[in-house]
Amino acid sequence: MEPIPEDGSQELKVTFLPELHLQRRIWVLNILRKESVTQVLDIGCGEGQLLVPLSQPAPWLTPPPISILPPPKDPELTSPSPAYNDDEIPNLHISHLHGVDISKYDLEFAARETAPPNFAPDSTQSFYHIQQRWEDLQVKLWQGGLEVINDEFVGIECIVSTEVIEHLPPEIFPAFAPMLLGVYHPQLLLITTPSYTYNARFTAPDAPTSARSGYPDPTGRTERIFRHDDHKFEWTVDEFRAWCEGAAKEWGYDVEMSGVGRAVEPDPWNREDELGEASFVACFKKTLRKQDGERESCGREVIAKLSLPSKLHELFAKHAHQPDVSSRKPKTLPEIAAAVIKKMDQFSEAFMRMEEVWFEPDVSSACGGWIEFLVRAIEESEDLNLLKEGDMGNNRSRWMIQRLGGLTDTASPWPQEGETSLDYIPPEWEPEESEFEESVAADGDISWNNSELDTEDEGGFDWGKAYKHLRENKVLGWGSGDEVEEEAVSPYSPTTKKHSIVSPTDPNAGWDGDASEETS
């Protein structure tokens, strides 16, 4: 830990991992997935940081009805195919996306990033893989302010407002709750906003005011120092709770309040519980205490009394994402099995992960976008076997397909009892001498990522300890040496991506930024 100035004249180092704007987005996506939301309006959408992941296609359709895929004819020979959408947090199947913002520049970027993929057929085409889409998606981007009623938003399923409310001018702020909870009355309203209470975490308890870098309250109503020059207010814990509970009661909603964002570094004064999280989050859920008609009429009445500017929203961009032509048109089970066999033989593989096979377009197209058809085709095929050994049964993303009667090398793809992955290294294999020498220091000591690795004996290298060290310290990846697999900040839980872990040059990167990483 860096030394703390005795006079408290400097801000403390505060780092968030993941960065704060990503933690807020993860909170939003988790709720959308948990609630199986299909329609989203992003208020103050900016460059589309939320809209872009939401516009990505789900990897497969929701389960087919029994009329399309009946139960197995012989349940004693094959187990019922599981539904791949009954996870605790299922995939999203978004059908309608709306975004509204006052910035034309931000909307231009959002429009480009949410448009359907359209790679021109040229020499670079083979380097891109476009995930198949199985469902329609309509995207609309609007230019305008929150204070203007847009009838297309009335009754939308979910509204998201991340790091927006604190930017509203005093004359616009009174329209926030009446417009969103009244006129539009969604099933869900998700809000995030900075916690002023948490700002104390950046300085010592007795630090002078000059130690806090930031921006004085531009309204002059308080002497508070804010995180951004455009913030009109930042709430304390009590102020946030009072506003949320009051809005929920007035408009007929229940509200759950919490927070996201705690520093990686321990607070020298142990104030973590006292100060809470850097961002407040609140989830409003509609109740039956009011009827939608009552909410809407009351909301419109309040908006009219505010006499705010009435320039209508302008439709800035409109995108229609069309599903694959094979969507919901599955082939027969034998035809699907034949497509799997052809693909495995093409790759000369006796074992393949089922989801790896699924993402081969020929296979998923044969299934019409229903992964349950793939499971059933494998189960009923005499040439394929679905392996769910050991703890794999509860982790369907690791289910394996075995090709029977094809390749002669059909050893189990998983380590057997008492074995490790090292047992699968051929005994005759040795590292290339030239590459190995690059990792050896002048004095013969071997280090990796600035961490010395012990040797089994003098002059010898223990590859087992090296492998263990690399895995435990997440140095070893299956791509380049600085890559590790992490869960992508994506609405679709089964998918992961590889990316480099980059330490921000600014230790506070992300704490004072919103989804655009520039404003809060």
Automatic annotation (TrEMBL):
Residues 478-520 are annotated as: Disordered. GO terms for cellular component: cytoplasm; nucleus. The lineage of its organism: Eukaryota, Fungi, Dikarya, Basidiomycota, Agaricomycotina. Belongs to the methyltransferase superfamily. HEN1 family. This is Small RNA 2'-O-methyltransferase. It catalyses: small RNA 3'-end nucleotide + S-adenosyl-L-methionine = small RNA 3'-end 2'-O-methylnucleotide + S-adenosyl-L-homocysteine + H(+). Its EC number is 2.1.1.386. The keyword Nucleotide-binding does not apply. Keywords: Magnesium, Metal-binding, Methyltransferase, RNA-binding, RNA-mediated gene silencing, S-adenosyl-L-methionine, Transferase. GO terms for molecular function: metal ion binding; RNA binding; small RNA 2'-O-methyltransferase activity. One of its GO terms (biological process) is RNA methylation.
